[in-house]
């Protein structure tokens, strides 16, 4: 009887301990890449035509804005590539130029983005600017601490567009791919 | 070291990483004293028993109903990123779970009282139980991101997880009320080692067409994670301090709770019976070392918005920091230390069994009643029946249906085979072996045995084993 017990015990143990398994390669984990692409708006600026008409100079608006989003460690350490999409709409009666300067924390100019548009009626200008890979250097974004917006009026200071709430509107959004692993 | 001890040690080491709430093979396997743990109302015929400390009961399971280790880590030449994307991120749903349970008996014993119809049992065990439902939309956000998914809501309610490690001290009473009915109850004291839960989350993240800017990003969150016990464990610098912290909390030095198990066996006739049990009707109050993290609120942002004519008087303000502050005010992340109550995962077992064949210990079938004169229950060589199991989980009850066949070879050995259908598997065949060598009782139970052909491809694996000393006493 004792022999039977031992045989059964060995059988059970065999089932438990010597079960089969296909070959596994847990080192594959090292090759796992987690790189989501995130998208959000960045900034929106609206300058009304009535305001432009108040300024006699060509340059009717210059303003620095603190912008630390690209400097945040979560972003700057992980960003792989991205695209910033600008959308410029001009419903004023004036040809205009918008210049966006990317500045670091010491106000050193890193990059400039210039848009020129004829007076209304005109189509919305959409520009996609790539960073990383074949686009501009990601270092521009990583070091950007401030944005400077310069706006120039190449028209007069009296005319008004017939379009309601005439203004220059700059919209922007970004898609960036980040490496989480 | 005896060979049998080696086998136990080997089994423990090899299978311990496999982390069963459902102990369908052990349930109503009345030759094994540990079956009292999952139904305090079984028919007992022991005079007394004593479990070998730390070896009397070791059980565990680990599994996922939706994916296996092999699906991701098989050495098949496929890119792991493709496998993760196709089988994990796109393949699983919020109802798919990853769960594990490990139960180790510290000590366990039982004895018959002066009234031979009453059997007392007592003991302590440590149980670790964790479950995570696949957070589908979180995974989609992490692996793919939200780009190009206008108007697609990422459901933050997909985060549902719960886990705990508790030491359970219990005392049970089992009483044969009459020839047909046996009932039992067990009181439990819980001493919490750690606990975490995040089960009632709501909210979403979505990108929509912006009113001013190109996109509006909306975060609506009502998220909460409650935890207890991790502070003292995290603060342990070495293994000795960690062991000390665990022991302290296991010995009523942490969170406390009470609970009860109830069970019965009712004989419909001499060979047919029904049983049922409710386990862990209880709760714990977590009061020390509690951290509750919450994120609650609603915010819609379109980036920095500068309407110059409206902001003319204050164009030099820090628009970026103001945006960050506004979001943090609208959706504050808070940490509190307020105690909380958690309920134990209550389990329900029920069975229907019909015995047939020769009575054990008799050479002929008889209709001589369900009990022999020495108060030991008359057992038959064969038993067949069905069992139902349910456990309360964060996404509702999880159930399993089992058919079983029990074969007794005299008093010294019994085998129980089961076939179970649940969300993990529809090919779950289990086998339990109980051997009684004099006073020594040994049992080994394996589950989902067909998966052992390729265990890495199994969605679920479990084991139970134990060693007891049993006495049936002298015949009267």
In short:
Chain A has about 180 residues and is of the alpha+beta class. Helix content of chain A is about 15%, strand content about 40%.
Q: What series of H and E elements makes up the topology of chain A?
A: HEHEHEEEEHEE
Q: Which blocks of ≥5 consecutive residues of chain A have pLDDT under 50? A: 1-5
> How many DSSP E strands of chain B?
22
Strand content of chain A: 35-45%
Enumerate how many helices of chain A there are, as a single number: 4
CATH uppermost class of chain A? Mainly Beta
As laid out across the biggest beta sheet of chain A, the strand order is 1-8-3-6
CATH architecture of chain A: Sandwich
CATH structural class of chain B: Mainly Beta
Which descriptors would you attach to this protein?
heterodimer; A: 181 residues; alpha+beta; Jelly Rolls; 4-stranded antiparallel β-sheet; 4 helices; 42% strand; disordered N terminus; B: 476 residues; Porin; 21-stranded antiparallel β-sheet; 9 helices; elongated
Could you characterize what this model shows?
Chain A is α+β, with helices and mostly antiparallel strands and 181 residues long. Chain A has four helices and eight strands. Chain A has a single domain (34-178), classed as Jelly Rolls (Sandwich). A four-stranded antiparallel β-sheet of chain A has the order 1-8-3-6. In chain A, strands 2-7-4-5 form a four-stranded antiparallel β-sheet. The radius of gyration of chain A is 29 Å and the shape is elongated. The relative contact order of chain A is 0.29. Chain B is α+β, with helices and mostly antiparallel strands and 476 residues long. Chain B has a 21-stranded antiparallel β-sheet that branches. Chain B is elongated and about 100 Å long. Chain B starts with a helix and ends in a 5-residue tail after the last strand. The chains are: A alpha+beta (181), B alpha+beta (476). Chains A and B meet through helix 1, strand 1, strand 2 and strand 8 of A and helix 1, helix 3, helix 4, helix 5 and strand 9 of B. Strand 1 of chain A pairs parallel with strand 13 (304-307) of chain B, so a sheet runs across the interface.
């Amino acid at each position: 009887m004792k022999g039977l017990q031992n045989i059964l015990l060995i059988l059970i143990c065999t089932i438990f301990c010597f079960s089969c398994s296909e070959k596994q390669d847990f080192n594959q984990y090292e090759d796992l890449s987690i790189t989501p692409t995130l998208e959000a708006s960045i900034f929106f600026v609206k300058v009304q035509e009535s305001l432009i008409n108040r300024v006699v100079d060509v340059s009717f608006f210059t303003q620095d804005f603190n912008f630390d989003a690209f400097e945040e460690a979560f972003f700057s350490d992980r960003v792989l590539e991205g695209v910033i999409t600008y959308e410029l709409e001009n419903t004023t009666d004036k040809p205009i130029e918008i210049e966006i300067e990317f500045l670091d924390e010491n106000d050193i100019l890193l990059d400039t983005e210039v848009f020129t548009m004829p007076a209304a009626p005109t189509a919305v200008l959409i520009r996609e600017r790539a960073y990383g890979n074949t686009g501009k250097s990601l270092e521009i974004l990583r070091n950007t601490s401030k944005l400077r917006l310069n706006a120039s009026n190449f028209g007069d200071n009296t005319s008004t567009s017939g379009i309601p709430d005439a203004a220059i509107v700059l919209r922007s959004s970004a898609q960036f791919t980040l490496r989480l692993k | 070291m005896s060979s049998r001890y080696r086998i136990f040690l080997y089994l423990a080491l090899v299978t311990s990483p496999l982390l069963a709430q459902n102990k369908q093979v052990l349930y109503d396997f009345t030759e094994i004293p540990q079956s009292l743990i999952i139904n305090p109302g079984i028919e007992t015929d022991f005079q007394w028993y004593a479990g070998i400390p730390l070896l009397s009961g070791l059980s565990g399971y680990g599994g996922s109903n939706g994916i296996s280790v092999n699906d991701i880590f098989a050495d098949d030449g496929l890119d792991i990123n493709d496998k993760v994307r196709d089988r994990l991120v796109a393949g699983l749903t919020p109802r798919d779970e990853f769960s594990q349970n490990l139960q180790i008996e510290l000590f366990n014993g039982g004895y018959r009282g002066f009234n031979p119809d009453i059997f007392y049992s007592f003991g302590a065990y440590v149980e670790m139980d964790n479950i995570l439902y696949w957070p589908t939309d979180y995974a989609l956000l992490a692996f793919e991101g939200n780009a190009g998914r206008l108007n697609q809501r990422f459901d933050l309610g997909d985060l549902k997880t719960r886990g705990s490690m508790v030491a359970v001290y219990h005392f049970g009473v089992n009483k044969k009320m009459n020839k047909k009915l046996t009932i039992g109850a067990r009181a439990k004291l819980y001493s919490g080692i750690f606990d975490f839960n995040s089960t009632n989350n709501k909210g979403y993240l979505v990108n929509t067409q912006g009113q001013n800017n190109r996109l509006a990003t909306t975060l609506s969150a009502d998220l909460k994670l409650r935890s207890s016990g991790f502070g003292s464990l995290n603060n342990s610098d070495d293994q000795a301090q960690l062991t000390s912290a665990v022991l302290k909390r296991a010995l009523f030095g942490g969170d406390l709770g009470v609970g009860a198990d109830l069970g019965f066996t009712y004989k419909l006739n001499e060979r047919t019976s029904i049983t049922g049990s409710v386990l862990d009707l209880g709760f714990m109050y977590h009061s020390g070392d509690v951290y509750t993290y919450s994120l609650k609120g609603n915010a819609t942002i379109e980036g920095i918005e500068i309407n110059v004519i409206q902001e003319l008087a204050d164009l030099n303000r820090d628009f970026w920091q103001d945006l960050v502050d506004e979001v943090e005010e609208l959706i504050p992340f808070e940490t509190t230390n307020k105690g909380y109550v958690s309920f134990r995962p209550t389990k329900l077992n029920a069975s229907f069994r019909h015995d047939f064949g020769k009575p054990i210990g008799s050479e002929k079938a008889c209709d001589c009643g369900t009990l022999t004169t020495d108060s030991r229950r008359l057992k038959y060589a064969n038993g067949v029946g069905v069992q139902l199991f349910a456990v309360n989980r964060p996404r509702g009850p999880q159930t399993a249906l089992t058919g079983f066949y029990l074969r007794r070879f005299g008093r010294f050995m019994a085998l129980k085979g089961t076939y179970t259908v649940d969300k993990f598997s529809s090919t779950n065949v289990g086998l339990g072996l109980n051997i009684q060598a004099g006073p020594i009782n040994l049992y080994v139970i394996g589950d989902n045995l067909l998966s052992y052909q390729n265990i890495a491809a199994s969605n679920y694996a479990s084991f139970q084993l134990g060693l007891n000393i049993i006495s049936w006493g002298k015949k009267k």
